[in-house]
Amino acid sequence: MESFSQCVDAVKEYCREQVTEAAYNLWFKGIEAESFSGDSAVLSTSSDFIRTTLETRYLPLLKEGFEAVIGYPLELTILSRDAMKPDPVPVTPGPMVSRGEESYTFDNFIIGSDNRFAHAAAVAVAANPSNTYNPLFIYGASGLGKTHLLYAIKNQLASTRPELKVLYIGGDSFTNELIAAIKSGSTEPFHDKYRNVDVLLVDDVQFIGGKESTQEEFFHTFNALHDAHKQIVLTSDRPPKEIKSLEDRLRTRFEWGLIADVKPPDIETRISILYQKAEEMNFTLPADVAEYIAKQLKNDIRQLEGSLKKLYAYYLMNGTEPTLSQAQEAISDIINEQMPWPATVDNIIEECARTFGVTAEDIRSNKQNAEISNARQTAMYVIREITGNTMEKIGSEFGGRNHATVVYGIRKVEKQMKEDSRLKAIVEDIIKNCQQ
Question: Residue 402 contacts by C-beta under 8 Å, 6 or more apart in sequence?
């Protein structure tokens, strides 16, 4: 080796092969050479938190790396460069800019073992639309980066292939636009909008499940685009086979291409996300605070970002770095704010109306045709399942219907669900959609 620094670089590359990319970027990438004297070496890293983690979790791997590179074992000492620096001059943080869709790129998507496959598939689609994976179907729980990947595809194509027509739409918005087009008798412009694009990005496609007219329209839109060799990318909270209210012909088409999942990030990835977002907000996040937040918020990247916004507000007010006590307070607020919200009666009725192709006003009215009655009775059943409201309270939401009418409607739906597996799947999907 020409220098100890080159030796350390070689050891870091050795370690890189043994850990995840997120772990390497967080713990090993910032290691620097300090000194070397025969049988011992001193390294440094950026913070005391990272130093402690390297010593407690990765010291054997580092020693193994040095022995592999130089041929004999070394005693290692790791220092924190933060501890070696003089106290910093306070820096006034810059304004925090709200994140728009153009800010979601592949460059600022933190890659971990939980999302590497989905990220690679999205990058491949953006590089070569309609010629790699078509359709690409990405699924995973809310808040794990699916929307980020869709916008990253859109933004990459805007930069590299500006001649392409790229359209992003949510599954619920597709349904609402179709209903409005049917009511106004303007389905041709609707067809033109969706069937004349080069790339169609549909977020939360599970929302079209159980809605017959929407599925019919989406079936023809999908076929038109796929037959024309246009790219389709879909996201959902579950894989196609688990969207029970989805028609078989759509489920089959969604499985034609590639299916990729995203899972909750591991702790190294969560800490990396926190550091990156703090850097974007232009303020310093202490290592112990980052570790505390990452250990508490495990399943939703949006919650990580929300915690930083709280801490950033404290930073602006107090002019000091965030503390553990402030992090505890911010986490408490976020957990309370972002717990699954109780579905409202209005939300349930709207979802039932979209599913059955009627209006919320129809459901609340005294109209008695079969389609509206089925939607109304299903809404009563779902309200009872989700809210636990009394029969009297449920009846009051539907023009003051009495206890017996509500009981009859709910029991009728229960009986039909036992006899009709498709209806059972539709009702289960309504409940899932209302609880998101």
Answer: 395
Residue 134 tokens, joined: 């078509």
Q: Around Cβ 37, how many Cβ atoms within 10 Å? A: 10
Whether the Cβ atoms of residue 47 and residue 79 lie closer than 8 Å to each other:
no
Residuewise pLDDT in 10s, the chain (436 residues):
457 888 899 899 999 988 877 778 878 988 999 888 878 889 998 877 788 878 888 899 999 999 888 888 889 999 987 666 555 444 444 444 455 677 788 988 888 778 889 999 999 999 999 888 999 999 988 878 899 999 999 999 999 999 999 999 988 888 888 888 888 877 888 888 999 999 999 999 888 887 888 888 899 999 999 999 999 999 998 899 888 788 899 999 999 999 999 888 888 888 888 888 887 777 778 888 888 888 888 777 888 888 888 888 877 777 777 888 888 887 876 665 554 445 688 888 988 888 888 888 889 988 888 889 999 999 999 998 888 788 888 998 898 889 889 999 999 999 998 888 888 888 888 888 776 6
CA dihedral 316, 317, 321, 326 (to 10 degrees): -120
Q: Where are the alpha helices (DSSP H) in 255-369?
A: 267-281, 287-296, 301-318, 324-337, 345-356, 360-364
For the beta sheet containing 136-139, the strands, ordered from the edge strand earlier in sequence to the opposite edge, are 166-170, 199-203, 231-236, 136-139, 258-261
User: Which residue in this structure is represented by tokens 């996201």?
Assistant: 235
- Side-chain-facing half-sphere of 272: CA atoms under 13 Å: 21
The structure's pTM equals 0.63
Pull the structure tokens for residue 374: 């089925």
Nearest CA to 355 among 176, 186, 182, 202? 176
Collect all residues with Cβ–Cβ distance below 8 Å to 175 and sequence separation of at least 6: 207, 208, 211, 214, 354
Structure tokens at 166: 């790229």
Q: Tell me phi and psi for residue 138, to 5 degrees.
A: -110, 130
> How would you label 159-194 residue by residue, b for 16+ Cβ within 10 Å and e otherwise?
eeeeebebebbbbbebbebbbebeeeeeeeebeeeb
